[in-house]
Amino acid sequence: MMKILIVGPQGAGKGTQAEKLQENLGIPHISTGDLFRANIAQQTELGTLVQKYTEAGELVPDEVTQAMVAARLSEPDAEKGFLLDGFPRTTGQAQWLADLLRTRDQQLDAVVLLEVSDDVLMERLLSRGRSDDTAEAISRRLSLYHDQTRPLLEHYSDILLAVDGVGAVDEVQQRILKALDASQANTPTDRRS
């Protein structure tokens, strides 16, 4: 079983590909957005905190997100493998995750980067027709993504698998599976979990 992180800009198809990977690899898809919504719906202590920050239009602090991720990763279905989506977003969060996994004698096996050009992303996001998807807003979000994600990609350079995210859903999925297979074949046995 694999422990994977999937990254890519908004509109790259991460959620769609993550759901397919969950089916194909038999590992849980752990999305921070889903964790936030589930904790809010269940009115957990962490959910109440998340709601307080989101309603105020503020970012949820790392400690709160990390507590949710730690709790989710300790559930039985995530013991042997998982697919993280939306976390970590920064090198600080990546270091925290590495420390957490180390305490469990685990580590990430691969970081899948869905590569899609800004032009294609702009086209995809504008075609959704959402009121907050203006060309200016999308450009701002893409710029922020590139600025924040570049250090994360450098941090994971030894396990980074860049995959072309343009094409039919199944075609992209096959590219991801092929890249994961190749990475496992080239991984020294002491690095495998």
From TrEMBL:
Q: Which InterPro entries match?
A: Adenylat/UMP-CMP_kin, Adenylat_kinase_CS, P-loop_NTPase
- Highest taxon of source: Bacteria
Q: What class of enzyme is it?
A: transferase
Matches recorded under Gene3D superfamilies: P-loop containing nucleotide triphosphate hydrolases
Gene Ontology cellular component list: cytoplasm
- Residue sites binding AMP per the record: 32, 37, 58-60, 86-89, 93, 130, 141
UniProt record, GO biological process? AMP salvage
Q: Where in the cell is it found?
A: Cytoplasm
PROSITE patterns named in the record: ADENYLATE_KINASE
Q: Where is this region: NMP?
A: 31-60
Q: Which SUPFAM superfamilies match?
A: P-loop containing nucleoside triphosphate hydrolases
Under which pathway is this protein filed?
Purine metabolism; AMP biosynthesis via salvage pathway; AMP from ADP: step 1/1
Q: Which GO terms describe its molecular function?
A: AMP kinase activity; ATP binding
Q: What is its EC number?
A: 2.7.4.3
Could you list this entry's UniProt keywords, alphabetically sorted.
ATP-binding, Cytoplasm, Kinase, Nucleotide biosynthesis, Nucleotide-binding, Transferase
Signal peptide from the UniProt entry: none
Q: Which residues bind ATP?
A: 11-16, 128, 167
Question: Subunit arrangement?
Answer: Monomer.
Do you know which NCBIfam families this protein is assigned to?
PRK00279.1-3, PRK14527.1, PRK14531.1, PRK14532.1
Record's family? Belongs to the adenylate kinase family.
Q: What does this protein do?
A: Catalyzes the reversible transfer of the terminal phosphate group between ATP and AMP. Plays an important role in cellular energy homeostasis and in adenine nucleotide metabolism.
Entry remark concerning the domains of this protein: Consists of three domains, a large central CORE domain and two small peripheral domains, NMPbind and LID, which undergo movements during catalysis. The LID domain closes over the site of phosphoryl transfer upon ATP binding. Assembling and dissambling the active center during each catalytic cycle provides an effective means to prevent ATP hydrolysis.
Q: What is this protein called?
A: Adenylate kinase
List the source organism.
Nakamurella flava
Annotated gene: adk
